[in-house]
Design brief:
The chain has 9 helices and 10 strands. It is α/β, with parallel strands linked by helices and 268 residues long. An 8-stranded mixed beta barrel has the order 2-3-5-6-7-8-9-10, surrounded by 4 helices. Strand 6, helix 6 and strand 7 form a beta-alpha-beta unit. The two termini are 21 Å apart.
């Protein structure tokens, strides 16, 4: 049973004498695709996709954003009123970089009543332990926050580190980072990743973890076959009231009742 399935079981499934069974997220998301087949985009997009392979994201009922300093000053009350229901906020990168807008976004989003967590952009030239300690140093241990996020992706544009360690080393270092954050914050972090990084390092591995997947032209069951997921980042060019310019938009894998129940457990 995956951690996400365990959370869902604890929060939203009736616990019978025989115990709780695993939620089939592929079936769940396919059923939602069918239910919302006629859905149209809820938000604008400066570079929209008109034909989605395997199903579009627009019918999923729960949408969120992820942001960093590149979005400038965000009007969080306006974002909340626009229907955005969660946010992932960049906090740290590597072992010595803090996003310039993190503390402002962290406090302003809380005042707006936005469920949110922080994410760390992984740097392959610095040890996992050092990076985890840096994140812990800068991100408050706060009751009510969502599970934090480890962002792992190849960064071919990095001016200082283009190292691509072997896959077993990548997974070992990821586990160190995840374990350290879980011990400190009391919640297992979510893993964010991209198609090429997942293919090279994660396909067929780490099935017990909770995943947030990037797929901007196709449904995740097309681009990440066999991978259960909790969040899907479907565009990097979304237009959301309260955010200046483009922003990433995401959906939660379940329906609205499942979101409410998952949120209740995840924010404890």
């Amino acid at each position: 049973m995956t951690r996400l399935a365990g959370l869902i079981c604890a929060a939203i499934m009736a616990v019978a004498a025989a115990g709780c069974t695993k939620v089939d997220y592929s079936a769940l998301t396919q059923s939602l695709d069918s239910t919302y087949a006629a859905a149209t985009p809820r938000y604008g997009d400066s570079d929209p996709v008109h034909e989605w392979e395997g199903g579009a994201p627009f019918g999923f009922p729960v949408h969120g954003i992820d942001v960093s300093k590149w979005q400038g000053v965000i009007d969080w009350p306006t974002v909340r009123r626009a229907g955005i229901e969660f946010a992932f906020i960049k906090a740290t990168e590597g072992g010595d970089m803090l996003d310039d807008a993190f503390m402002r976004n962290w406090h302003d989003s809380r005042r707006a009543g936005m469920p949110r967590s922080a994410y760390h952009f992984y740097y392959f030239c610095t040890s996992a332990r050092r990076q985890a300690r840096w994140f812990i140093r800068n991100v408050p241990r706060e009751r009510g926050a969502l599970p934090h996020v480890l962002d792992v992706e190849w960064n071919h544009k990095s001016p200082t580190c283009r190292l691509r360690p072997p896959a077993d080393t990548v997974r070992s270092e990821m586990t160190i980072f995840l374990d350290m954050l879980e011990r400190h914050y009391g919640k297992r972090p979510i893993i964010y990743t991209t198609v090429d990084f997942h293919r090279d390092n994660l396909a067929g591995h780490m099935d017990e973890e909770v995943f947030w997947l990037r797929s901007v032209k196709a449904h995740p069951h097309v681009t990440y076959p066999g991978r259960d997921w909790a969040f899907w980042q479907y565009t990097g060019t979304g237009l959301v009231p309260g955010v200046n310019g483009d922003t990433d938009i995401n959906v939660f894998a379940g329906n609205r009742n499942q979101w409410r129940d998952w949120l209740d457990v995840a924010t404890r």
